[in-house]
Amino acid sequence: MQHNVRYSAARTVAGLAAAAALSFASLADAQTGAQSPAPTAQPLSQAAPPVDPSFSAYSLAQTCKQKNDNVAHGQCVGAIRGIIHGYQYGVLFLGQRASLPANETQRVSLCLRNTPVSSIVDEFVGDAGQVNEESLKHTPAEVAVLGSVHMHHSCN
Predict the structure, then answer these.
(1) pTM higher than 0.90 for the full model?
(2) What number is the average pLDDT over the span 125-145?
(3) Residue 140 β-bridge partners
(4) Domain count, the chain
């Protein structure tokens, strides 16, 4: 699991900055029938890789729900911290290496100062509970976690 977490967190760096919040919001909108504004990001030219069922949004949400199981709790916290740290390092790296439009780094950054991981876990589990299980099984855990965090802790 830990290898999957590191590898999965590293994969989030390229391309999830704008897509994370949009993907999870689209799933939630599909549940409620609401309309999302059109995404501003260009679609990727290659097809998305298949979702690893052992690290889907569904499997991570199930793990995170097991609050009384110390092993599951550790795996949940480790996965969420890895995803967030990988994403934040990716934003920092892109901000230093690429010429981004004004305020773009702030738009995709997370404002998590003094935010306990337990509240991020609770928000993710609550948000995942609003999406049907089948959709969660086809959503990468990284996308769902980052979408949830962006909904609750964006810097805008």
Answers:
(1) no
(2) 95
(3) 56
(4) 1
Token representation of residue 134: 């089948």
CA distance to 34, 73, 98, 105, 107, per residue, from 102 (Å): 30, 39, 12, 8, 9
CA-based nearest residue to 147, from 118, 127, 122, 121? 127
d(CA 122, CA 117): 9
Q: Are 57 and 129 in contact (CB under 8 A)?
A: no
| Burial (0-12, 13-18, 19+ Cβ within 10 Å), 61 | buried
Give the domain range for residue 106. Answer: 7-32+55-153
pLDDT tens for residues 37-85? 444 444 545 666 677 777 899 999 999 999 999 999 999 999 999 999 9
Please name which of 51, 2, 3, 65 lies closest in space to residue 23, comparing C-alpha atoms.
Answer: 51
43 assigned to some structural domain: no
Residue 134 maps to a domain? yes
| Res 117: pLDDT | 94
Q: What is the largest CA-CA distance in the chain?
A: 46
Q: Is residue 126 part of a domain?
A: yes
The answer to whether residue 99 sits within a structural domain is yes
